[in-house]
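Human: Here is a favour to ask of a fellow structure person. Comparing notes only helps if you start from a blank page. I am asking you to supply a protein in sequence and structure-token form. Write it directly below this note and I will take it from there.

Assistant:
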Amino acid sequence: MFYHLFLELSDQISALNVFRYITFRTGGALMTALFLSFMFGPWLISQMRVKQGKGQPIREDGPARHLIEKQGTPTMGGLMILASVLVSTLLWADLSNLYVWTVLFVTMGFGAIGFYDDYLKVTRAKTGGFSARFRLALELIIAGLAVWMFTILGDDKLSNALALPFLKDVLLQLGWFFIVFGTLVVVGAGNAVNLTDGLDGLAIVPVMIAAASFGVIVYLAGNIRFADYLQIHYVRGTGELAVLCGALIGAGLGFLWFNAPPAMIFMGDTGSLSLGGALGAIAVAAKHEIVLAIIGGLFVLETVSVIVQVISFKMTGKRVFAMAPLHHHFEQKGWKEPTIVIRFWIISVVLALVGLATLKLR
């Protein structure tokens, strides 16, 4: 909104030309989302405590200490994140950009699915939400529509192609299969972040690190001069997604204030599913799907640990890990929660640096 409002006035007031710059509006979105989270976070937490009573149900097959330490903590803190991201993006982004609307569609759509799942868990006082198949079907529909839109928005050469990191001018033309591939990336990212969200502050910081990394990537990929200099594929219009990435960072910082150990509120599926979906959608839009697997490598490790555990137990009756996902394995090994969380943050930073290195190492 600000972009369109002040752009018209920039001829009369030259100082308003700063609203033309994506970097300025990204900073504005970040600070706005942070402010909104700080302002409305306490109110949301108090409301969730009253309405939810016993808070988020704690899985009985998880670490035993969670039943004592985390019992009664309210969930659905993702509403704080979603509201801050939505308002900040609408205020600071160029609303004529369809990439922005498409990523918002995924973010809010996945958030709605997660909210309904959280609602059922709280009202039923059970750790299971609604049908996993139905939930997955909804995610696939939302992600599929978004990826289809990306193929329409992209240039003919790029619309159905997969770019490979470390290799310049290399594109794998996937045809219609790209929609299937991109859909799986978005859905996979959403559920990977969801699996990672098991300890106070564990998921939100890696999400912010990934959002910051992709903020840089979309800004460069959406700028023809920078893209040409770095020899990455130029994707017209994706630069505006940096504003949305800024909103994700600001909302994440605000949420972390209340989610830092011991957490006052959990983000729940409302937050984790929507944040992961947003990152997946941004990666597909910018043609950096494989780089997402590097930058979001922590989420990949958590997901793989669950897959390996399930396959191993079904085939051999034995477990590879003491408990899955991976962070619970280390809990069972005696690591303290802050130790696990901070070390996982460090891993996320290292992986983000490796992912960003792909922009230059070609």
In short: The chain is about 70% helix and 0% strand. Residues 23-357 form one domain. The first strand starts at residue 161 and ends at 163.
